[in-house]
Amino acid sequence: MPQPTVDYSLYLVTDSTPAILGDRDLADVVAAAVRGGVTVVQYRDKTSDTGAL
């Protein structure tokens, strides 16, 4: 089976810090970004427990 093609034309890198989110929810911010045309989302968080994901 061939590998799917990934569109990297608008790549969002985010985390859950207040500097990024302000008072907004991470899921809402990512959903708005996808509606705005983001094609790939990378979530970075070096401090949270992996079980929280």
UniProtKB/TrEMBL annotation:
Record GO biological process: thiamine biosynthetic process
Native organism: Colletotrichum higginsianum (strain IMI 349063) (Crucifer anthracnose fungus)
Protein name: Thiamine-phosphate pyrophosphorylase
Superkingdom, taxonomy of origin: Eukaryota
UniProt-listed Gene3D superfamilies: Aldolase class I
Residue ranges of domain Thiamine phosphate synthase/TenI in the record: 10-50
